[in-house]
Amino acid sequence: MMTAKYLLTLCLTLMLGLSFSTYAAEIDLAEAVNKAGKQRMLSQRIAKAYFFLGGNVRRDKAKQQLQGSIAEFKKNHAELKAEINHQNVQKVLAFLDIAIDEYAELVGRPYDQDNAAMVLDLSETILEVSQDVVVKIEALSNLEKPKVVNISGRQRMLSQRIAKYYIAYQLGFKDRDSVNQLKNAVKEFESALVLLKTEKINTPEITAKLIRVTRLWRIIRPFFMDVEKGGLPVTVFATTDSIMKSMNTITGMYVEVAG
After folding, report:
1. pTM (2 d.p.)
2. Using CA atoms, how far apart are residues 206 and 251, in angstroms rounded to an integer?
């Protein structure tokens, strides 16, 4: 017969085991949100690199980014398919199986206005689908932490999206919709940056890095708001990349911070 003490010990052990398993699952989901969020960024980075390459701006760096981003997108995609077995997520990932191959083939073509227009359109489609993957993975968690990871991770994407539309404008894509997409991305980036700086789980290290991003942003923002004037594409390329790398580090820090 089990004693009361034994029963209590058994119950505590089971509860602690359940708590640990739940916590571990949430950590995995936070990392999955981070990884899926990188796919959003890469969808824009690939197109951005294609446009910079086509505009003969930082050609070597742009080519390296283009090839590296395609390889990373495919790697992350394969890992997400293996890690997240939820049916709704798998259905969306199945669409990306086809889309990413088409995207890789398209950005491998020589730059011209027709190819560039298709790259711009497909980058939007892949971004939309990648965002849906993030939302579906985030919905699997009941904790707040993956939401912070999502917001922070989205800043990576926005930095590359802004640069994409900026250089596309310089290369002739001057329609009103492209300008609006750029300026809407600027507004979203700024709103999220304000939100992140007030996040209650920020560590001193996270806060310091967010301050650095804010300083870089203040330098580069006027170029985007006056995109019609153009100029200094190398500065845009370098600064948005620096912001993206900082936000990538910050997002990784949010994954590690206890929720």
Report:
1. 0.86
2. 9
